[in-house]
Specification:
19 strands; 425 residues; globular; 2 domains; alpha+beta
Length: 425
């Protein structure tokens, strides 16, 4: 099976001085198209917003071309797509009762695909309002070991749709080049080839715990940093001055970047753990089904879980590891050893089965259940369930094999009798 891997490389463009104004004029018209599309497509709250690129193109493409003195056709299309994609994300946030508003575009960012740009290993030719401009790349003297050497100059990677940005402080233009490659990996197509790493995400204590007993990150620390940011934001909002507003914008960006980097390190650890144990799959709980159990900083935790999963999936893809999601029901209540499922089995971070007395960290127990659920799903994908095929999931010590004769059901086994007053010794 072939996997498509994408890496983004930021490279400075050597734009001729007499052509910089052409790029600025092109950006103004590109942003105009995006804003006009947003104005047309944003219908909230009176009716449904338009999120279809084709519908928007059919309605306003010709007008936009005429209003921009026939800006390159592909740039108009890309501006329409940017706006409809962003409105689609806004609609998702509205569905989750999150505050949002119509997208607005006022920064320098132009989207170029291969119809509006010709990409080379040392330069790029960009369509502008005044014909094409050819810009050489400012590459390091020794690109070995840099993103430029690994991706931009690597013939194994090809250019995909990229963006051009402008840094007003330095008066420099940058290409954010998207480099794609099809990676052949021994992806498990049969259950007997599979080994699963289960990951349980948490609001408190550690951010993630794996079925191999690896405890990753510190959710309490992440939450503490968030609360400190919220306190300072509240103080700045009460101040109400323009200086306080700009300070708020600055610290908000700092916290966002810090959070992203922290979760990046956690996702890196998860993929490394999967590689150490030779895992072919990483299993998470389905975020859409665990929202109700998140109470403290609900929106922030949803964002953190989503970011962790997305970053893990991105890194795992490069390693040829599949990331999948399973239903979260009963993963925290079910004994990963005997299958007994009771709410009383779990007491905060401690899990002790009232049937078999198996005692362990509650998140580790949940991670094993998550791994088992995906292993069962893969096992059921076999054409002949009665055959000798098996699927494994990685544990702290060794692996557990799921086959047709063992406890392989993801249906929880409930204890019908009333639980004893205290667990048997």
């Amino acid at each position: 099976m072939a996997w498509e891997v994408t890496h983004t490389v930021r490279v400075r463009l050597d734009v001729p001085n007499d052509r910089k104004s052409d790029l600025h004029a092109t950006n103004q018209k590109f942003q105009y198209c995006a804003n006009r599309t947003a104005d047309w497509a944003w219908r909230y709250p009176d009716e449904d917003c338009v999120t279809s690129k084709s519908e928007a193109e059919n309605a306003i493409y010709d007008d936009l071309r005429e209003e921009t003195d026939y800006l390159h056709a592909n740039l108009v299309q890309k501006a329409i797509k940017r706006a409809t994609d962003d409105i689609d994300n806004c609609v998702d946030r509205l569905a989750e009762d999150e505050n949002t508003s119509k997208p607005e575009y006022n920064t320098f960012s132009i989207v170029y695909d291969k119809r509006a740009a010709t990409y080379y290993r040392d330069k790029v030719s960009l369509a502008t309002v005044n014909g094409r401009v050819e810009c050489e790349y400012d590459l390091p003297d020794n690109p070995e070991g840099t993103p430029h050497g690994e991706y931009l100059l690597n013939d194994d990677y090809s250019f995909s749709t990229s963006t051009v940005h402008y840094d007003s402080k330095t008066d420099e233009f940058y290409l954010h080049a998207a480099m794609e490659r099809e990676l052949d990996v021994s992806s498990p197509e049969k259950a007997e080839d599979s080994k699963v790493l289960g990951v349980d995400c948490n609001v408190d204590d550690h951010i993630a715990v794996t079925s191999t007993g690896e405890f990753v990150g510190n959710a309490d620390y992440l939450n503490h940093q968030r609360r400190e940011f919220e306190k300072r934001r509240a103080c700045l909002q009460q101040t109400g001055t323009e200086a306080a507003h700009w300070t708020f914008q600055r610290i908000g960006g700092q916290f966002g970047r810090w959070s992203e980097d922290y979760l990046h390190q956690c996702s890196k650890e998860l993929v490394a753990e999967a590689q150490r144990h030779g895992c072919t799959h990483i299993a998470f709980e389905d975020l859409e089904q665990i929202r109700e159990r998140i109470s403290d900083g609900k929106k922030f935790q949803q964002w953190a879980f989503r970011a962790l999963q997305q970053q893990t999936e991105y890194k795992a893809e490069s390693a040829g590891i599949v990331v999948e999601k399973v239903e979260p029901q009963y993963t925290s209540q079910q004994c990963s050893k005997c299958g007994c499922t009771l709410e009383e089995n779990r007491d905060d971070q401690h899990f002790e089965c009232l049937d078999c007395s198996y005692a362990v960290n509650a998140d580790y127990n949940a991670a094993k259940n998550i791994a088992r659920k995906l292993a069962v799903k893969l096992r059921r994908g076999q054409k002949s369930p009665a055959g000798g095929a098996f699927c494994q999931y990685a544990l702290k010590l060794g692996v557990m094999t799921v086959n047709a004769t063992e406890v392989a059901s993801d249906t929880p086994v409930r204890q019908n009798e009333s639980p004893p007053a205290s667990p048997p010794l």
